[in-house]
Amino acid sequence: MRNVFVETENVGRFNGALKALERRGASESCLMVVDGLPGLGKTTTMHRWSATNHAIFLRAKRDWDSGWFIDDLLVEMRVAKRHSFKDRFRQATEALAIRQSDYTIQKRTFALVIDEADHFSRSQRVMETIRDLSDSMDLVTILVGMGRIRHNLTAFPQISSRVGQRVEFTPASRADVVKLLAELSEVPVDDAFAGLIHQVSGGFTREIKETIAIVERFGRRNGYGPDNPLPLAAMRGQVIGTNRTTGQPVMVPETV
Predict the structure, then answer these.
(1) Together in a domain, 129 and 23
(2) Which residue range(s) make up the domain with 50?
(3) Domain ORC1/DEAH AAA+ ATPase: where (predicted)?
């Protein structure tokens, strides 16, 4: 499987929302919520965007509190932390402000990205600490979760009102599946194959990639490749994935 990043419709919506956030009228509305079910490519997208744009990327822990959050942030920025929370918060603010200033000069967006945000989205203290950091310099802060974060933030109007953009990652469309196959698979398949993969995967990127790996192995063993696309009929009765709900193998029907 090719090691490339495919820009699906979800990625396009995220990029569009980020541009809208950059053009925001109210400077304090600098929070973005990115959510959706597991397996839809959120973390992969955010990892790549963060690496490409040199953003700060953190993965929240289940028992995160304000102090642990600030400690992780300082470690990520390679800042030797001081003892008191007050001093560590000041260190984090100063380090972020320096980075943001450098990006402003270059007319680029600097951001803090926090994955697994569902872990702390019900904690007022953690959310207030994040808001304080974000407010102090109008820092673009992207909270990534699995669906609960959007609802949980309604308990904190002073924070939810600062969410300038919301992006929900949804299952891949058929066009997305065709694009993923074209750009990732080293063994091309016919259009009927793309349709079946879209159906059995439920549009989940994780399952689509699993199927691509299976298709490539079968194709190579049986002489298919760039100049000899693999037809769906060639894999009658073969396992092409796993049903996310039941855990049972999914096979190509014998009647295709």
Answers:
(1) yes
(2) 9-168
(3) 31-152
